[in-house]
Amino acid sequence: MLSVQVDLFEAYQNSIVGITFKSLNGVQNFTKNYADYFAKDTLVPFENWGMVSRDLQIAFERIWSSGFTNYMQEMWGKYCDLVLSFSGINFGSCLAQMTAVKFIQDKWWPTTQVFFVGFATPRCGSEDFAYYVDLSLGKNAYRVNWKADPIPQLPATTCTRGGSAQLGRCPNSWYHCCTQYTYTKWAVRSKVTTCTDPEDTKCLTGSTPADFYGYFGSVPNGNFILKKFTNMIFLRLDYDNMSC
Q1: Which InterPro entries does the entry link to (predicted)?
Q2: Which of 132, 138, 172, 239 is deepest in the core (most CB within 10 A)?
């Protein structure tokens, strides 16, 4: 069963509430059986916003009913002019997407005050779900890949790949959302490939399971770049113009 941890940090002085979904417990063993896991995964409905992984839907429902809803309602009452940062690694990245879609589509928070950044993100759901992620977050949504990490290529898709997700084109198979960045050397601009097409194979080149660990600091400065990239997104938002 999928198990994740949710971290919240409240940086009121910077007008940010950060919501980070960590990866599954025992992630160090994940690359040993990741292919088998994804091969067994299935899609189930996610309210009115396409379909997502069955295990992710179960995890989302548990998080949503565990007090998280009440916490965010309280936050809106006190700090409705803050920016919400949804982020995550691996499956946590998918839960971040799901939460962002629900917050925006249910009108909990305005889209101009929400952004998403995910690392080592697999395909989280159907093309319809990816469409709602893009619709909800616009240009404030990014996926970051490291070298030849194979996880972003999974689960395999039968959809016609190319271009941003379209509603109704491939409702029963997996598809990515968002602009993606693939790094081969952290903090070196010439070593990053940018793909506005979420399924562009120029950014989905992974075949080396060991590269999955690059996000977690097993390569020099790995954790630093997670923070660096997220801070770059913070700087894109104009806090002074936020209002309830």
Answers
A1: AB_hydrolase_fold (IPR029058), Fungal_lipase-type (IPR002921)
A2: 132
Residues 118, 93 contacting (CB under 8 angstroms): yes
Residue 1 belongs to a domain: no
The answer to whether 22 and 88 are in contact (CB under 8 A) is yes
Q: What is the pLDDT of residues 24-45, one digit of tens each?
A: 555 555 556 667 777 788 999 9
Backbone region of residue 166 per phi and psi (left: phi > 0; alpha: psi in -120 to 50; beta: other values): beta
pLDDT: is 190 or 124 the higher one?
A: 124
Domain membership of residue 196 as a residue range: 6-241
Q: What are phi and psi of 89, to 5 degrees?
A: -120, 130
Extract the tokens encoding 17.
Answer: 């509430």
* Domain of residue 187, CATH code: 3.40.50.1820
Cβ atoms < 10 Å from Cβ of 185 = 15
Domain count, the chain: 1
* Residue 219 within a domain: yes
